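[step 3/7] inverse_fold.run input=structure_tokens len=197
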């Protein structure tokens, strides 16, 4: 059984939405690792620790099994096989696009978190230094200027991150809605419509 799960896979295992999984990762409720490709993965034991009885790993194993199992069917005409291949490739492309957009969202959230941590650390250093040099008015003035610059930089970074995240989320929603509409349209086509368009 696979013991490392992407955010999408963790969502299927736990029955929680991907937004919930991301929120728990962001606030520290849930911890994760980074694989060799830079993707965030969550260990099975961590999912069990946080979500307990909500976890059903058979759901994810079932998805993998269905993807690995090939049905034995009668030979089909070449044109129908080509049509099925094109249709499956299109679905895979849609899924890959969704995964890429989700990864960009995760990276934007991570950059925002790192920026906030950097700001807090810099502020703590300034406060410590200010306490040690409390008798120096020049140091106090210099530190006040630096604190203002840091605050402005933090605000600008936060605004930029929020704008980027909002843009990515909006793009994600539009593309996902369009993909779902196209997939539903394909699924609702009759057998002959799929062959002849």
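[step 3/7] decode complete -> sequence:
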């Amino acid at each position: 059984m696979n013991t490392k799960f992407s955010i999408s896979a963790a969502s299927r295992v736990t029955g929680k939405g991907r937004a919930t999984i991301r929120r728990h990762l962001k606030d520290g409720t849930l911890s994760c690792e980074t694989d060799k490709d830079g993707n965030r993965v969550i260990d099975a034991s961590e999912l069990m620790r946080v979500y307990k009885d909500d976890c059903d790993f058979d759901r994810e194993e079932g998805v993998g099994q269905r993807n690995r199992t090939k049905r034995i069917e009668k030979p089909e005409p070449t044109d129908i096989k080509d049509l099925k291949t094109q249709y499956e490739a299109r679905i895979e492309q849609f899924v890959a696009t969704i995964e890429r957009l989700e990864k960009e969202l995760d990276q934007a959230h991570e950059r925002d978190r790192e920026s906030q941590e950097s700001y807090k650390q810099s502020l703590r250093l300034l406060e410590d230094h200010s306490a040690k040099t409390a008798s120096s008015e020049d140091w106090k003035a210099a530190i006040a200027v630096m604190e203002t610059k840091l605050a402005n930089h933090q605000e600008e970074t936060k605004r930029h991150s929020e704008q980027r995240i909002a843009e990515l989320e909006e793009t994600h929603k539009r593309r996902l809605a369009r993909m779902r509409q196209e997939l539903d349209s394909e699924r609702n086509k009759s057998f002959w419509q799929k062959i002849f368009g």
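[step 4/7] annotate
Residues 177 and 183 are 10 Å apart (CA to CA).
The radius of gyration is 25 Å.
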